[in-house]
From TrEMBL, chain B:
<dbReference type="GO" id="GO:0042597">
    <property type="term" value="C:periplasmic space"/>
</dbReference>
<keyword id="KW-0813">Transport</keyword>
<dbReference type="InterPro" id="IPR006311">
    <property type="entry name" value="TAT_signal"/>
</dbReference>
<keyword id="KW-0732">Signal</keyword>
<dbReference type="Pfam" id="PF13416">
    <property type="entry name" value="SBP_bac_8"/>
</dbReference>
<keyword id="KW-0574">Periplasm</keyword>
<protein>
    <submittedName>
        <fullName>Spermidine/putrescine ABC transporter substrate-binding protein</fullName>
    </submittedName>
</protein>
<dbReference type="InterPro" id="IPR006059">
    <property type="entry name" value="SBP"/>
</dbReference>
<dbReference type="GO" id="GO:0019808">
    <property type="term" value="F:polyamine binding"/>
</dbReference>
<dbReference type="InterPro" id="IPR001188">
    <property type="entry name" value="Sperm_putr-bd"/>
</dbReference>
<dbReference type="GO" id="GO:0015846">
    <property type="term" value="P:polyamine transport"/>
</dbReference>
Amino acid sequence: MSETGHNPDPDNSTGGEIPAGPEPAFSMRGNLLHRNLLTALLLAPATMWLVVFLVLPFVAIAIFSVGERAPEGGYQAALTFAQYANLPARATAFWNTMVLAPAGALACLLVAYPVAYYLALRAPQRWRLILLALIVIPFWTSLLMRTYAWMYILGGRGIPALLAYVGIEDLRLINTPGAVLLGIVYGYLPLMILPIYVSLERLDRRLLEASADLGATPLSTFIGVTLRLSLPGVMTGFSLVMILLLGEYLIPTLLGGGKVFFIGNALVDLFLQSRNWPFGSAIAITLVLVSVVVLIVANRISTRLSGARRVDLI
Amino acid sequence: MSKSYRDGLPISPEKFVDQLMRLKRGSIGRRDFLGLTGLGVATAVMARELGIMPTPAFAAEDLGDRMSIATWPNYHDPQTFENFKAETGVAVEVNVFGSNEEMLAKLQAGGSGWSLFVPTNYTISTYKKLGIIEPLDMAKLGNFDGTKEDARFTAEGTIDGTTYAVPKNWGTTGFAVNTKKLTKPMSSWKEFWDTAMAEGDGRTMVHDYQLTTIGNALKYYGYSFNSLKQDELAKAEELLLKVKPHLFAVSSDYQPSMRSGDAWMTMCWTNDGAQLHRDIPEIAYVLGKEGGEIWTDFYAIPKDAPNKPAGYALLNYLMNPKVAVKEHLANGAPSTDARVNALLPKEVLDNPILYPAADLLKPLEFGAAATLTDPGRAELMARFKSA
């Protein structure tokens, strides 16, 4: 990690880890016991929350994943790794997801960055809040509703009907990979815009002036200063969208006609159609592991790109 | 385009808000929304002449104020539930599904929350075996008259002398074709699949349902609709994978796409075929001459139903021929009940979509119980969808 490079924020260069508490000393045992107890008590609600909502479900899924499908479907206890061995049967769905999730996140980024840039650096102050609200407000409606609206816009009575007036007949937009990509960009845009906006908004304008004073063209100022300093926001948005896309299910179903299959769709099918819980669980575990790897890699990249500045992704 | 965009919007603002609020009260899922908007289509058609039904005598049990039913898309006259609410005070939440597998999955997982649901004939023995449906207390179903039911369609509701389910209606599984877009006359599943890869490229839909999608692919080769034989299923899979890139969608909710003109051909159940043809005459309903499926849908009550009294009350209400006849007019599937047939108008009873010629009915097969739980068919369907 290049700690030596140009670092705009030296205060934060150590990595911002939570300092470890003082080492326990035996002479202070009573006092310490008291303090440990207090710490434990204070941590208890959070720990309970994690255990109940994260650890226990994960353990249950892990147990299911080494079981067998019961004759009538569902789960039956066993200890086998056959489900994991069967993972290649969903290779296409994994492949689609691993290609379309980053592609979707990238498309989202390309649309979101100019918007965030305009909002943070160019929009008049008094409009900024209103514009931000306009971006966030549609998010209050369920994604289901908004995606359903796209079904009508892209469907035969929507854009194709308008195009028919100018002589373009029988154009099909709905249920294509393009429609899925459009739905993804639309659905996840605010999640990309907001982190980028925040990182651009905090940008020290004097750096831009300094860059111009030192003879940099607007383009090289943008690449060398603006873009570089907004990278943490970009990576946050990118990872956020990407992680959500890895589990996406609704948009491929509604705008892809159930044909552009994500691993999320495969999962839903295994639980709701094939009723093969063990195989579904094995895929779920694999998906969680893949997501964790993606997070770690994204974190590494963003730390490196932004000059060793530590970034909290979520 | 001669039609206005409003043609596709049969739902009034009040109805929409009403249904939205109903969704908010209950569990919201993609299919709830699909189904309710689908139901809106039936509303628009049927809203003309429906009044309040005669009140059947209900037992003096507390029915509560809400219950939930699991059923199929575009399958009921929404007015039925409104009238039921007006009479009993029980609001009915409608959950809509695309396959029997999905219903079974929800019931197996427990806590489905349904007090009544609509399983297809071949699933009932499995439900009974798993102990998740209630033996019906016929004393609470005074409106049901077994002697008036057509025995061809009702047998699978009764197992070892105990009645677990009573029939709603029967029907067939064929395909619907927009004859303006696909002008070549078709009469077989072979033509269906071949057209899907030729003139119907990108415009054909198949069910998101293993029984019919695999079954009708099996019919391409003349195999049994219910086949579990490995080599025959392998042939069906080969065909399905070949057709997949040419499909418009894999979905059991095909009415919206057929109505909007996005899809030109789809696998189709009788009731949807009748509704589509009624509203858009150029959409024809075709039964494959090789055969395919004939079915009966039943009403049954889950063992863990949260509101059994209301479940029984609604079931009894639906068994009233005067209520049932309006259901049949709305949904378009033929009745199993002679008392209902006596009330249906002649043009319904003469409709060849509902009552196909005997030589078309003859090769049809009822779904077999084993297909529901067979892991081979389940995995084949999953491979097809994820390919």
